[in-house]
Write a structure and sequence with these properties.
The structure is a homodimer of 700-residue chains. Among the domains of chain A are: 197 residues, Immunoglobulin-like (Sandwich), CATH 2.60.40; 277 residues, Alpha-Beta Barrel (TIM Barrel). The longest helix of chain A has 31 residues. Chain A has a seven-stranded parallel sheet with strand order 19-18-17-15-14-13-20. In chain A, strands 1-2-12-8-7-5 form a six-stranded antiparallel sheet. In chain A, strand 25 and strand 26 form a beta hairpin. Chain A is α+β, with helices and mostly antiparallel strands and 700 residues long. Chain A starts with a helix and ends with a strand. In chain A, helix 8 packs across helix 9. At the A-B interface, helix 3, strand 10 and strand 16 of A face helix 2, strand 10 and strand 16 of B.
């Protein structure tokens, strides 16, 4: 039975027709796949709502790579409108699915129920996330986007039909308790319900590979983001209550002590009032904001400002936003109606003139997710906004529209930004914002990083505090191999390496000898600086063809069930594999994908295709490079603004037959190739800030 | 401003009219309170659904106590039908609200959002519960039932209107972070949304006191349950895989070692297949079920059988139920359509003939809640049932209808039962079922007990295992002062006092000297036996006028803000206050309500009205009796079936001016009164099993 027959078999099956009231609602299969772009089709069920991620998109789609075949699965079947809309899609035996946005609790989603619902603090594996996305990718090489801004429930083969035939008497003497077959071996269905929508459009993305599916989805979203180079440097967020003077001292300490840093973040204390926010400088802490920002910029620090959108009545934005806000308040502030273009303009223009024009490089957009299920704040689902959306829709829209509001200001100024945000959703790939959250479990942080690449999201597993030196080091080792390398010291006046204990740190009681830990951290932050050309190349590929720069091993090594399960290791770009260690665990196991690899740190060859144990005594984060790789290592400088950072050591792993290619959307390029026959390297580049090559070094 | 004016003021406020699209939907106040019974009114908004807790009720309402006044609050106002139905009810300054069923995380619900959604394993304070009820009680002396079987969200003053006026600049230098006023000081609203209903009926219950409100609600439900006396004895559940022979040995050990026990529970192992269930005896373990049950009955053990409703294809019930089930399966079994009378009859008749007729006294109805948000099982919301309800409705209906299915069989046989169930809902007071769950936090268990009395529910904080001897003792001390005193040994072959360690218990490696711990437990279980006449009286009052036998201190002592907050102490009946200790905590504080009290154990007087600290070294559970109480203490026997249990010691606390009255619905009665002037007691009784009086003892 081929896949299309299988799909038809499922759709005609007894499951859905067994209850008369449901069977009567089965339509005459009116939905059809309509080709919208190579390898991308759309099917409409019922009457879709006016405001959805696609219909209200900000960025136009880009044409995807050619695809000659027909749709890989039959169109979705409508299963009635008794409550919202319900549709069915096929799920073959042994088919696995991935995606649904920034999931913290699981990687493989078959046999689970995923609720696409914005929740800042998910506690169980329900699908809730601060960046849920109604999009999944199948191991059979296609992807499905259900285009809704409402809460949607995906039953990923988890809703089982009732049994229809009796069986004989079960042999006595054994009582299986809690036997729950995951049912992978049987064909099933993905059932999708949107309880409060009258219809939806469904988009289908062809492969043939899962990575091709994601590329198509990301190009459909508008293509991946290419961050400014400084965004890929190291970030540090200062204590919330620090004064400008204290921050200038801290940044000087970073420069004096050779801690690289490109971005300095200010937390809530820069506002005159926070929770809710005023967006106005606290004159006691920052008597001359423009001079403060200029002083940092002159030393190659970019300044990032924390805020949330809820607008305090004492804010200069309050009166202009008063009629451009929802009917409910949060923390005593207005909730901007970011679905309304005028609200985005008023809110954005204020930020542009008051903040970007004095040199602010980016923002950290906090609290734009939803904590009604946990923390008990945020606007309720029953909120109404002047644009016509309700609170449920707004929760799914708010994060991306808040991003768009501020990004637009940078675009108008022809400036790049790289910013932080706590909520996102469908079609996010082009947005220059990286997700973070208030969660903190290290394994969950890593799993989220692995999952992010399935849904066009970037994720920062930020370092805040640590239970031990080991924990600090392991977390820092993880974050420097992520989209945004940051320590968030918002509640400690001194960097964590000087004192891990929060209370003592706040009392300025530093550890007896913090220098060795500082040195370890400096070394790890240095790795990040060395990686920047490599990261730039990965992002440039993201921008060009939608390939996520950080992604699950399942995408690069399909067809291996053991690799498909790995949720604690990830690919960075096309040749680097990271398998972090976690504090408190004695070791970790890694199933290295097939092929020849090299230890990134030593160059020693390591054979793939088998699992091995890595003990916790391993000093550096375990990292492996595909054999043949040409790999550029930048010089460590205080910031990317230092031209010396462009002096490269070129490492050759194995025979060097895999050239390194960096091609940015802005037209800058670097090609490093090695000829094993002649043992000579070639450099071709086009850049306003050219790279210099120090050495070509054979590593293994 | 009086309460009615306040209500009107709120309803006319700017909050709801500030967004034009909402204001346009405001109806011309068509809803009106219609008197349905003394002190009970109904208002209809929109078009209520066909199947709701009240419209599909099993038990008719009983007339409540006279109430001459007008409705204490204005009718609910409809706030539009854009998504389901939304209504508003007043909430005055400083008004507190309670209820919403079996809540584990909080007692006072103002400023919170409560989702009425069945969830077996709530992890955060959202309202989710395995027994949520869309009913709340106000400190102002009224109650509101929103009659829906759908998920409903109650915003208890938590959804705040947006601010409307700018304020001046906030003084610089202070940045309040996370300032979130609970807003008790301002009048607000309770907003209720039922996203998938086209309308609802709302019922209003008058006081004047909160306890009166609850009485009216419980009488409206049909009145409280009066359990059979054996149900108030001690319960023990044997290991799931125990054979009949092993259970006969265990029960003989109980009798030999003078551990009182009235009910012996069998867990899953009695079925030929469990998860899903067959309801057929496993012949290896139970070759002759009828003899087995008779053997236990002859020694005054009642037998309770575990099951869940999901019907395995090898069950004799499978074929008859096949067309009386939902379209989805759970654990490979059918989901009975308990909303369908024929389904209840077929399922119930089988149980009646096969199980009740051989002497089974009750059931433990497991897994009838919902774990889709946590454990990932149960039928999905998109399920359809032949009766017309969907999975969302069925989750709210399933528990009570499952109870009704089996209770009906006992009623047809003119037999009483007292059973266990894991889900319940609105109008549950008459049902002879006590809730339990898989949760286990001792403080949460106590809070649930305190909360249960607001919503017509009974809750068993069962003892399963314990981290320490202290924990075992403290948990056992709690459960004997609850509606059902049970140790659930389903995963241990030996009683926990013989070995706390689960693995060792299963290996029959008993503790070196378990006799002292057994003696402690025997003593505590003995307390339960001594309490039975007192508990019977409290339940008889529940049956007669709806007064919950276990309840929050707020109900007996209104008007004291410090007492209103107490979620770790409760009243049993009208004169006994229990304030448990929790293992691992050094002490506890108790604000004893005003008036004169006595230590229950010593009779020593204790002055109420002040808070005091009770150290963890306190041997017995802290318990206090109102001064003046006449309190019957039964003799400790192996079971309530022993006539010797009716020999009473009468304890007099203080002057003995508060007589003890027991008046069952069946017409049995006992009146114990004491004349302080003559120092003589009087006994008046009517019973088929008369009490004898051993002593009248002055205790304090």
């Amino acid at each position: 039975m081929n896949r299309r027959q299988l799909g038809k078999g499922i759709l005609a099956g007894a499951t859905l027709a067994s209850v008369p009231s449901v069977a009567a609602q089965l339509p005459s299969s009116s939905a059809q796949w309509i080709l919208t772009s190579p390898g991308v089709w759309k099917a409409t069920l019922g009457t879709p709502e006016a405001i959805t991620p696609v219909s209200a998109r900000f960025i136009p789609p880009r044409v995807t790579a050619p695809f000659a075949g027909s749709p890989p699965i039959p169109p979705p079947i409508s299963l009635g409108q008794a409550r919202g809309c319900l549709l069915g899609l096929p799920l073959a035996a042994d088919e696995e699915i991935y995606g649904f946005g920034l999931q913290f609790f699981s990687l493989q989603q078959r046999s689970k129920r995923r609720v696409i619902r914005v929740n800042a603090d998910p506690r169980v594996d329900t699908g809730d996330s601060h960046a849920p996305v109604p999009f999944y990718v199948s191991s059979q090489g296609y992807g499905v986007l259900v285009d809704t801004a409402r809460y949607a429930t995906f039953y990923c083969g988890e809703a089982r039909p009732k049994p229809t035939e009796p069986t004989g008497v079960v042999p006595s003497g054994t009582v299986p308790l809690y036997t729950k077959s995951l049912g992978m071996e049987e064909p099933s269905q993905v059932l999708v319900e949107v309880p409060l929508a009258t219809g939806v459009d469904v988009y289908l993305f062809a492969g043939p590979s899962m990575l091709d599916v994601i590329r198509r989805y990301n190009l459909f979203s508008g293509g991946g983001v290419m961050p400014p180079e400084w965004g890929l440097g190291f970030w540090y967020r200062a204590a919330s209550n620090a004064t400008g003077q204290e921050i200038l001292s801290l940044t000087q300490e970073f420069r004096d002590r050779k801690i690289p840093c490109d971005v300095l973040g200010l937390e809530a204390g820069w506002h005159t009032h926070a929770y809710s926010c005023t967006f106005a400088w606290n004159a006691t802490r920052f008597p001359d904001p423009a001079s403060f920002v200029t002083s940092l910029s002159s030393r190659n620090f970019h300044v990032n400002l924390w805020e949330h959108a809820f607008t305090h009545p004492s804010s200069p934005l309050f009166t202009p936003m008063r009629n451009l806000a929802g009917d409910k308040g949060v923390w005593g502030g207005l909730v901007p109606d970011f679905q309304n273009p005028q609200a985005r303009k008023v809110f954005g223009d204020f930020h542009g003139k008051a903040l970007i024009d004095i040199g602010i490089s980016g923002f950290k957009l906090d609290e734009c997710d939803n904590s009604d299920y946990t923390g008990g704040w945020s606007f309720p689902e029953i909120s109404r906004f002047p644009s016509g959306v309700d609170g449920e829709q707004m929760h799914n829209l708010f994060g991306l529209r808040y991003q768009a509001t501020l990004w637009q200001q940078f675009q108008e100024r022809k400036q790049l930004t790289y910013s932080l945000v706590r909520s996102s959703g469908a079609l996010a790939a082009p947005f220059p914002f990286v997700l973070y959250s208030d969660l903190y479990d290290h394994r969950q942080f890593v799993r989220a990083l692995v999952n992010s690449g399935f849904s066009g999201l970037l994720w920062c597993p930020e370092v805040r505090d640590a239970a031990s030196e080991e924990d600090l080091i392991r977390r820092l080792q993880t974050v420097v191999f992520s989209p945004l390398a940051m320590i968030n010291g918002w509640y400690i006046p001194n960097p964590p390496w000087k004192q891990l204990d929060r209370k003592k740190n706040n009392a300025n009681e530093l550890a007896d000898d913090w220098h060795p830990l500082e040195a370890r951290c400096r070394e790890i932050i240095g790795w990040r600086m060395q990686l920047i050309p490599y990261l730039s190349a990965a992002f440039a590929t993201y921008a060009r063809d939608g390939t996520p720069p950080f992604r699950a091993l399942a995408l690069d090594f399909p067809g291996h069930p053991e690799i498909a399960k790995i949720d604690d290791a990830w690919m960075v770009g096309d040749r680097l594999l990271i398998a972090p260690l976690f504090a408190g665990e004695p070791d970790r196991t890694l199933m290295l994908p097939p092929g020849q690899w090299h230890d990134f740190w030593t160059g020693n060859p390591v054979a793939g295709g088998t699992a091995f144990v890595i003990p916790a005594t391993t000093r550096n984060i375990p990292a492996f490079v595909r054999t043949g790789s040409v790999f550029p290592i930048a010089s460590i400088t205080s910031s990317t603004g230092d031209q010396a950072s462009r002096a490269l050591d070129i490492r050759l792993f194995g025979d060097g037959r895999l050239p390194f290619i960096l091609n940015t959307p802005e037209g800058e390029s670097l090609l490093l190739s090695w000829d094993p026959a002649t043992a000579k390297g070639t450099v071709v580049q086009h850049s306003s800030r050219p790279y210099t090559i120090k050495n070509w070094t054979k590593q293994g």
